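mind reviewing this fold:
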Amino acid sequence: MQRAQDAGFIRNDLPPGLAAIMGGALVQFWLDSQLEIRAALAITGDEGLADEDAIRHIVRLLRSQS
């Protein structure tokens, strides 16, 4: 994560360990909570997400804006 921050890929306003924990936690939630995710998306009227879309959203949260 530190190398990704040094390269400008991951935002540097987060400690590298915290960025890794946040990314890992979001991926773990995505993998383990498909039933809850589908129920939440159904309530909001949003379409389901493919794995690739979910990962793209997670990376966007961690990615540097520059």
